[in-house]
Design a protein that fits this description.
Distance between the termini: 43 Å
Shape: globular
Number of helices: 21
Length: 513
């Protein structure tokens, strides 16, 4: 779980986002930032109501909706939260939900198995790779007509341009979650350790600049690793300064400003990153068992066995890391923010084909994206039970160590922009996040979605090869001068050139429209 959670925290965040994707905040919308709330309250009719405010779902049997969501902590009180949600939504849309949480570490595997078996699910969270598979398998519904009829307010919240990034083969199959929709990478460090070592981050502009910092901190903390990892744990460069075009098997370099699709693993930039990791490994800045350890960089920081790690930057991201680790942290941004298709659709909500309640599912989706009460309950739990409000309008856990509805996945929950802000964040954190999204470098391929149906076998083979080599290369425990050529050769044998060519052809056709 920890290993996968860290991914999403950058993507993510990766992550994410996670992400890891990145780290992802607990957060929500602020009292001091009412733009999202006023849009919902003043100009949109709530889901399930007509424009004159009359409930359109008074008659008939109450629909039971099955939701599957990812979790990252103790969710023992999920039935209690569901009860509160149902009391609120039943008068609005004459529906009730069953909340089903699956640990993020096994979410894709478990829910994917359920989807393949045709088990009834009405709404589900999905990561981009899973979403692409579901679309190819026709396991999810196109949403265009449902959005137009039952999705009041969703488009206004997500934005038409962002929604277009989710279009595949002419149809929208998923709704991107509202979060940081661009990727910028930062190094987060233990401020106390940095001050004790007397290091100055003001001149750190690139990842290579961290080497001198590590040398100084290592002198003071010889038993501590300097680099605890990134969102993907040992896979440290799932995102950087390139547009991954969905799967990293054929990318656009230079922040997506070139439309020439290339094999990432043959580029000088990837080789240099692997060489840097090996240099750090040899210098003792990375733990020797890094490639096989299940620990995340945040857990290493919390245990004070690591000085820092890499995750996605966004407004409020540092406060989120501090909450997770319990440390006073600093950060330095290493890459510019880049918006591309995958940075927008890396986390989504979808309606499976197995549902018999597509209309009600979309009405529930509308509440998830436009109604602060629903969004707050699902993301943060119950006020007075799981959290309480501070004088400044932020919120905090009532009992952090024993909370039974503990979420760190704001970026996965539809529209976190209309929820309350966690302490440690500025009240306008989500206004700043929207500004961050708007100011990011835009890949020239933003909106392009690769149809991988003709190269599924090659993608599977190449991913198997990548799984064999990337961890060792990106955690530094092998010499890239020896191993990287083998990696590249096996990728070619697995068919990466065919994937690159197919991506290039589709991208050219897309760009010519």
């Amino acid at each position: 779980m920890k290993r996968f959670l860290a991914v999403v925290l950058t993507l993510v965040m990766v992550l994410s986002l996670a992400a890891c994707g990145g780290t992802g905040g607990n957060g929500g919308s602020e009292k001091g930032s009412l733009s999202a709330k006023s849009t919902v309250g003043d100009s949109l009719a709530p889901a399930g109501k007509s424009d004159d405010g009359q409930n359109s779902n008074d008659d008939g049997e109450t629909t039971k909706l099955i939701l599957y969501m990812a979790s990252a902590g103790n969710m023992e009180d999920a039935p209690l939260v569901a009860e509160k949600v149902n009391a609120y939504i039943k008068p609005l849309i004459n529906a009730e939900i069953s909340l089903n949480y699956v640990n993020m570490g096994s979410y894709s595997e478990q829910v994917g198995l359920m989807m393949r078996s045709g088990e009834t699910i009405d709404l589900l969270f999905s990561l981009e790779t899973d979403a692409r598979n579901y679309i190819r398998q026709e396991a999810v519904l196109p949403l265009d007509d449902l959005l137009a009829t039952y999705g009041s307010g969703i488009i206004e919240q997500i934005g038409k341009d962002n929604l277009e990034a989710a279009r595949v083969n002419g149809s929208i199959y998923s709704l991107p979650t509202l979060k940081d929709m661009a990727i910028s990478r930062m190094f987060v460090y233990n401020r106390e350790m940095a001050e004790a070592a007397g290091v100055d981050f003001s001149n750190v502009k690139t990842i290579e600049d961290l080497t001198d910092i590590f040398a100084k901190v290592k002198e003071v903390y010889p038993d501590c690793s300097m680099f605890g990892g990134a969102g993907g744990n040992a896979v440290n460069f799932t995102s950087w300064t390139w547009d991954s075009l969905g799967d990293s098997m054929g990318v656009l370099m230079d922040y997506g400003q070139s439309l020439d699709v290339v094999d990432l693993f043959e580029t000088d930039e990837y080789r240099q990153l692997c060489e840097l990791m090996h240099q750090w490994y040899e210098a003792g800045y990375i733990e020797k068992d890094f490639a096989t350890s299940s620990e995340t960089w945040t857990s290493r920081m919390q245990a004070k066995t690591a000085f820092g790690g890499i995750t996605s930057y966004k407004p409020g991201a540092l406060a989120s890391v501090e909450e997770q680790t319990g440390l006073s942290c600093g950060c330095v941004v290493l890459t510019d923010a880049l918006a591309y298709t995958s940075s927008i659709v890396n986390t989504n909500w979808m309606i499976p084909s197995s549902t018999a309640n597509a209309d009600k599912a979309m009405e529930m989706m509308a509440l998830l994206y436009t109604d602060p009460t629903v969004a707050n309950l699902l993301l943060n739990g119950i006020e007075g039970v799981h959290y309480e409000e501070n004088e400044d309008g932020t919120i905090r856990r009532i009992d952090p160590d024993n909370c039974k509805y503990q979420q760190f996945l704001g970026w996965a929950y539809g529209n976190q922009f209309i929820t309350k802000v966690w302490e440690g964040n500025d009240l306008d954190v989500y206004e700043k996040t929207r500004e961050f999204n708007d100011s990011a470098i835009k890949s020239r391929a933003l909106g392009f979605a690769f149809d991988n149906s003709s190269v599924v076998n090659e993608l599977t083979a190449c991913n198997n090869v990548a799984n064999k080599y990337r961890t060792s290369l990106e955690c530094g425990d092998v010499d890239p001068n020896e191993v990287l050529p083998k990696f590249i050769e096996e990728l070619k044998s697995a068919g990466i050139d065919k994937i690159v060519a197919e991506k290039q052809a589709q991208l050219n056709a897309w760009a010519d429209k």
